[in-house]
Design a protein that fits this description.
alpha/beta, Glutathione S-transferase Yfyf (Class Pi), Chain A, domain 2, 4 domains, 4-stranded parallel sheet, 7 strands, 48% helix
Length: 444
């Protein structure tokens, strides 16, 4: 096997049920093996902060090599990984089937799982992973919750930083008083004359679109109906990405098996499954099958799952889009999120927006720096803005009327970076996701 990864990368199942997986000594051996290879390569120097931390750690050691670095100093490298998968998908020349067998994100996941098993997950971090519970609690008091979480609130945000470790200046998603699942009966009329009539799909709402921005789901359902697609809304629970970030693999496995079992009847009836946020699509399509590869229901769900932009583009290529799309004035800057790229499906968000006639589409394929819950934390927020500065700079230079991302959290984080550059908020629409722009172009 020669260097360069000219073959398609192969990702191995995560052996989280094996006792060796949690053996500290064997973990340390693997960390040292991989870190030594990474230090000699350095191709990932401009991705997340894990690699600069690793290279500085070794370069500044007594010998300038890994042999003089204490294993206790590895923690900052592990903590900086956002599980974006970009090193595995787009940078590393040593991923399987190369004999070096490097999977840096899943090694960082293993390190977190070992730490979680030995020391538990910190209380604040564990509470933040409970997205469904938090959304349900916030919905009846959404106005108060949004007031408390608003940046600039001098009363509550310093307290949140002190207790939960969330940076006082980090933008947080707003909550809705009417979750999307409570609107399930308000289905739009399906256009039976549309070219794609006959398709059926389940919308896996995701915790974000359910509890934070249901307009994304409403827009998706309206666009699908306009194109002849019958939809149902099914949301058993969060996909488990927040738990994965903390190394709680067992919780993710339980979620995967539960959700796959509840979606199985829909798949058997011929429904496609559409995830509305790329992190969730990535979990259903790729991460769950690596965590519970023996579960046939999980594997069937993986094969049936589409990202919303991927699904719309497929309609456009296969049957053709319903007529009625109108140009959008002022242009669009679309950020291609890391978890969209990690699905290895191409720039589907941009492809979808190019279906809109006479509209300027500017593509940004740089990391936003947000990294899920990582970028909002007190110790990471400034680093996250630094990582996302190239993307923010491009948005500021383009000054389009709309800035969207398939990852709404990444979009809002980029806008915070733009605000730092321009010294004032960006004058853009409130639309977060590209599917909302497609709905707008249809006049929906």
């Amino acid at each position: 096997m020669s260097e360069g990864s000219l073959e398609a990368p192969t990702r191995h199942p995560i052996q989280w049920r094996d006792a060796d997986f949690y053996d500290p000594d064997k973990l340390d051996q693997e960390l040292r093996r991989v870190f030594d290879i990474c230090h000699g390569c350095r191709r990932c120097f401009n991705l997340c902060d894990s690699f600069p931390r690793l290279f500085d750690l070794i370069d500044d050691s007594e010998t300038g090599e890994l042999d003089s670095v204490a294993s206790s100093d590895f923690s900052p490298v592990v903590e900086a990984c956002t599980l974006c998968d970009m090193c595995f998908m787009s940078k590393c020349p040593y991923v399987p089937p190369h004999e070096f067998n490097i999977d840096f994100p899943h090694l960082m996941l293993r390190a977190r799982a070992v730490d979680a098993k030995a020391n538990g997950i910190a209380m604040a971090a564990r509470q933040l992973t409970k997205t469904d519970r938090n959304g349900k609690l916030a919905a009846p008091v959404a106005g108060i919750a949004n007031w408390a979480s608003k940046t600039g609130n001098k009363l509550t945000r310093p307290a949140m930083q002190a207790v939960l470790g969330i940076h006082a200046e980090a933008a947080l998603p707003k909550f809705t008083s009417k979750p999307f699942t409570s609107r399930g009966k308000d289905a739009p009329v399906v256009d039976k004359d549309a070219p794609a009539y006959g398709r059926k799909a389940v919308l896996y709402a995701t915790c974000f679109t359910n509890y934070n921005n249901p307009d994304i789901a409403v827009s998706a359902r309206a666009v699908l109906a306009r194109n002849g697609v019958e939809t149902e809304v099914v949301y058993p629970k969060c996909c488990g990405m927040p738990q994965l970030e903390q190394g709680d693999i067992a919780a993710v496995a339980a979620t995967a098996e539960d959700v796959a079992a509840q979606l199985k009847p829909w798949i058997e009836k011929g429904y496609d499954i559409i995830a509305l946020v790329p992190s969730c699509a990535l979990m259903l399509k790729f991460e769950w099958p690596l965590i519970v590869p023996e579960n046939e229901e999980v594997m069937a769900l993986s094969r049936a799952t589409f990202d919303i932009t991927q699904y719309i583009v497929d309609i456009g290529k296969t049957e053709g889009m319903a007529e009625g799309l109108k140009p959008l004035a002022g242009g669009v800057s679309i950020h291609i999120s890391c978890h969209s790229r990690a699905q290895n499906m191409g720039q589907k968000g941009a492809e979808m927006l190019r279906l809109i006639p006479d509209t300027d589409i500017d593509v940004i394929e740089r990391c936003s720096g947000h990294g899920g819950s990582w970028g909002i934390m007190k110790d990471n927020f400034e680093v996250a803005l630094k990582i996302g500065k190239p993307a923010a700079r491009k948005v500021a230079e383009k000054a389009a009327a709309h800035i969207v991302s398939e990852c709404p959290l990444a979009r809002d984080h980029i806008l915070q970076g733009v605000e730092r550059i321009n010294d004032h908020p960006a004058a853009v629409s409130q639309v977060q996701h590209p599917i909302q722009l497609l709905a707008l172009a249809y006049g929906l």
